[in-house]
Predict the structure.
Amino acid sequence: MTEKEKMLSGELYCAADKELSAEHARAVSLCEKLNSGTLNNDERAEVTTQLLGKCGKIAVLGRGFWCDYGKNIEVGENFFTNYDVVILDVCKVKIGDNCLIAPQVGIYTAAHPLDKDIRRAGLEYGKPVTIGNDVWIGGGARILPGVTLGDNVVVGAGSVVTHSFPSDVVIAGNPAKIIKGLK
């Protein structure tokens, strides 16, 4: 397997791989364009389409958006991120329709081994993140590797989401827990 294939499958891989480094540099360049403040709305939409693996007709990435590769991110219709959002997409990040992401949110698929010798060898891995339809993620929240959020989930500001949650709930806290149901 190539390092990219290992990465996407959640196995240990070397991020310094030549192919991955080139793809990362491409994503950084596109993010820099988005964050430059020089693009009009049509140009922003075009760069967004180039950056993301898949997006609906309306996909707004606010200033300060950063990702590792971009091509591993799929978003549905009516997707919006506010300022300073980071999505580390070493594995697939799939986000449904009508999702809102507040400022300074982090969605992370990237992880590092607990064993120091493996970390020193430059190996890492990831776990995919899936976010359903009609999800609202509050400011400063963190979604950790391997998490799945169902449809119609509200994530409270500042929450750290360490595990998956079903549809129709409000979650908050560190670690996040269900605060109430929405049905």
